[in-house]
Amino acid sequence: MATEETVQLNEAHAPHQASIDALDSVLSTLKHELIKLRHNHDKHEPEYFRAVASLSDADLTSFTSSDLSTVRVANSAYGLHLFGKIKIPTLDNAYIHIRIFGSAKEGTDGSSTDERDYKFHSIHTEEVVKGDGDRVYRAIFGKDDALEWFDT
Questions:
Q1: Which helix (DSSP H) or strand (DSSP E) does residue 129 occupy?
Q2: I need a surface site. Which of 28, 50, 96, 150 has the fewest CB within 10 A?
Q3: Calpha distance 115→146 (Å, rounded)
Q4: Which domain of life is it from (predicted)?
Q5: CA–CA separation, 138 vs 87, rounded Å?
Q6: What are the residues whose beta carbons fall under 8 Å from the beta carbon of 59, sequence distance 6 or more?
């Protein structure tokens, strides 16, 4: 299994066409999962999506691949790990962090972009335990928040 300790992410950069194409291939799944995640968290811990509480589901998912602002990529024996920061266009400083996995299509080595299949992996949600034991939750990040490795 690929982990932050076993795989080296490259530096954050503007997306290349291959990353945009990867996002396009999972965009409908991503939007569906984002709405589902929001509804599930709203039942138990609405703070995760508090920053976008005023948005409808349609506004929350109004992004396209052109809203992909930053990516980081790592290769492993399993395939390509793509982390992306996507701007929610209906708010000034609201981004989601997503993860996509690319593997070689059957019968290929996956060395070129047309030889890869991409699957949506996850949307980053963060739980921070403060020194006093209080917990802070979020799924919406700001422009200045670093795009780091995450499993959730």
A1: strand 126-129
A2: 28
A3: 30
A4: Eukaryota
A5: 15
A6: 88, 90
Distance separating alpha carbons of residues 29 and 44, to the nearest angstrom: 23
**What region, left, alpha or beta, does residue 68 occupy, with left being phi > 0 and alpha being psi -120 to 50 degrees?**
beta
pTM: 0.92
Which pLDDT tens digit goes with each residue over 28-76?
A: 999 999 999 999 999 989 999 999 999 999 999 999 999 999 999 998 8
pLDDT of residue 64: 98
Length of the chain: 152
Sole residue written with tokens 């959730």: 152
**How far from the centroid of its chain's Cα atoms is residue 47's Cα?**
18
Q: Which amino acid is at 54?
A: S
On the CB side of 12, CA atoms within 13 Å amount to: 13
Which of 12, 15, 9, 55 lies closest to 34 in space, CA to CA? 55
